[in-house]
């Protein structure tokens, strides 16, 4: 397993973790259950930690893929810029959830303001992580970007004919 592989694996966890945590928190709002609430909060904390791991593994992944043919530095830069904001918002979510796991804070006057911060940071974090993941996918998956790859152009594959070889004209038309 190399640095790029580790980065790809680790980056999926914050996105899935945030989604699952929101579902659990929603379930807790519908049917209050302290165990479900703790599990949701723990999910937010874990998502924050894995967002940090994703950020830390990003440099090694960048060094591996920037040398590959067809990888544009601008795509890496866009992904890296978005990742900074995603990390910050996900870490704020995780730290806020950690504070809400402290019984004295969870039951005190700070509980409601902390929950508001958690929800806002969590929604922002989820959007930022999703956007960052999309940009990361575009680094090597040009089908996401809707662009024609250099390799596809070299063998005559075209995005406007469903990826089939040759031109986009019908071969059945004899006129």
Protein architecture, described:
It is a single chain. This protein has helices at residues 3-30, 34-65, 73-100, 103-107, 111-140, 142-145, 150-154. It is elongated. Residues 147-175 have low confidence and may be disordered. Helix 1 packs antiparallel against helix 5. The protein has seven helices and no strands. The chain has two domains: 3-140, Four Helix Bundle (Hemerythrin (Met), subunit A) (Up-down Bundle), CATH 1.20.120; 143-175, no CATH class. The protein has 175 residues and is mainly α.
In short:
About 75% of the residues lie in helices and about 0% in strands.
3D shape: elongated
CATH class of the largest domain: Mainly Alpha
Instruction: Evaluate the radius of gyration.
Output: 22 Å
CATH topology of the largest domain: Four Helix Bundle (Hemerythrin (Met), subunit A)
Low-pLDDT regions: 147-175
SSE arrangement, N to C:
HHHHHHH
What are the salient characteristics of this protein?
Four Helix Bundle (Hemerythrin (Met), subunit A), 175 residues, mainly alpha, 2 domains
Secondary-structure map:
Layout: H1 3-30, H2 34-65, H3 73-100, H4 103-107, H5 111-140, H6 142-145, H7 150-154
Helix pairs in contact: 1-2, 1-5, 2-3, 3-5
